[in-house]
UniProtKB/TrEMBL annotation:
<protein>
    <submittedName>
        <fullName>6-phospho-beta-glucosidase</fullName>
    </submittedName>
</protein>
<dbReference type="InterPro" id="IPR001360">
    <property type="entry name" value="Glyco_hydro_1"/>
</dbReference>
<dbReference type="InterPro" id="IPR033132">
    <property type="entry name" value="GH_1_N_CS"/>
</dbReference>
<dbReference type="GO" id="GO:0008422">
    <property type="term" value="F:beta-glucosidase activity"/>
</dbReference>
<dbReference type="InterPro" id="IPR017853">
    <property type="entry name" value="GH"/>
</dbReference>
<comment type="similarity">
    <text>Belongs to the glycosyl hydrolase 1 family.</text>
</comment>
<dbReference type="GO" id="GO:0005829">
    <property type="term" value="C:cytosol"/>
</dbReference>
<dbReference type="GO" id="GO:0016052">
    <property type="term" value="P:carbohydrate catabolic process"/>
</dbReference>
<keyword id="KW-0326">Glycosidase</keyword>
<dbReference type="Pfam" id="PF00232">
    <property type="entry name" value="Glyco_hydro_1"/>
</dbReference>
<keyword id="KW-0378">Hydrolase</keyword>
Amino acid sequence: MTFPKNFLWGGATAANQFEGGYDKGGRGLSSLDMVTNGSINELRQITRSTISDKYYPNRKASDFYHHYKEDIALLAEMGIMIFRMSISWSRIFPKGIENTPNEEGLKFYDNVFDELKKYNIEPLVTISHFDIPLNLVEKYNGWASSEVIDLYLKYCEIIFKRYKNKVNYWITFNEINAGVTGVSSYQGLGIRNEGTISYSDVEDDPQIRLQALHYQFVAAAKAVVMGHEINPNFKIGCMIGSSICYPYTCHPKDIIHAQERNQLYNYYCADVQVRGEYPYYAKRIWDNENVSLHITKNDEEILKKGKADFLAISYYATMCVSATQTGESALANLNLDTLRNPYLEKTDWDWVIDPDGLRFTLNEMYARYQIPLMVVENGLSAYDVLDENMEIHDPYRVEYFKAHIRAMNEAIEDGVDLRAYTTWAPIDLVSAITGEMKKRYGFIYVDFDDYGNGTGKRYKKDSYYWYKKVIASNGESLD
């Protein structure tokens, strides 16, 4: 294995799934505080008011708010070099519209960054990770309004200036391409309709959705320009959720369909943020959706000026698509026209496992953009069991990561400029899609169940010790 000497090994989390403390330190309610828990077979609900017989998992999550010193010490012992985390917007501006930020919230992140520095762990901060103050959802319908751009920039200016000597790496939006389809309009864009509705059934209006996504593009570009003015050494990247589409058959119509889906799912957003302009095929996407975007000359200029310094991706699975066939879905819980690859195994949550797809994806992205890449999410969800000896044996997770690390190494050998790898997630947290805690990803077990019951104690899994050896050997020791 030949990872670069300065390669950054780490782990990734998100405030809304990990931090908790939703009513502490002056924090306001966020969009995902209003989503109930559920299961694979039970739709989650979005509610405007708290329902007494429902549990809201993001409000407590893994309670990093009260455990951050312990958690960071555990990461440091494992050898983590870089820790991807997000800042909760509503902890800084509780309603999103205040003139003055919440000092208690700012101080909390000061403490987190100072604790990371104590162990020489580099923070990688996502500014908005599927998280927006609830007031902005109710007042503006989230990113459907261009007024949110300036509110986001005010938030960016505060954290850029406050942490300019503590944070070097930033990501403007998590998986911004979630907004390119109607799957995650509430999650990614804060768009919703009235009443109590299912999490995956927000009424989709392509005109509103794609315009809202454009506003995020403009906000991200302006944030890049602003950040570089505040600290020229900042590295400010964009991020997409990568799910490369294979043609299900060699039928030419399947080949074309896969190309179209890759343009939509994987390249549309990255093209705008890395190249600084909408791609040639965007007009056909807009025509197919029957939308007409309001894009000003100033918008076009700022997109050119505010191009991303690096491209970050999440990678969990590939998909098959077909214009000629139907069959089992490749990605459970996501309403995409995908088919399961018959050559691949599945996780406990029915997502295919495709390490070769990671190598393929990295090559495709680097060939297209020629800027540094980071894999900032990659991991295996599984039913982990805490046994009578208070141990967790998870050889399946070790095997998963072995295969994906080998695939990354192959991509580096291919010539890809890959800078960092932050696994999802080093410590168990709440699932973004299902709201479950039993859907575990971590090297560290958190003793909470799907309803927040438990001690909250942390336990090292077998994979913890394995990843520690991987980091210490810079990827050479995978056994």
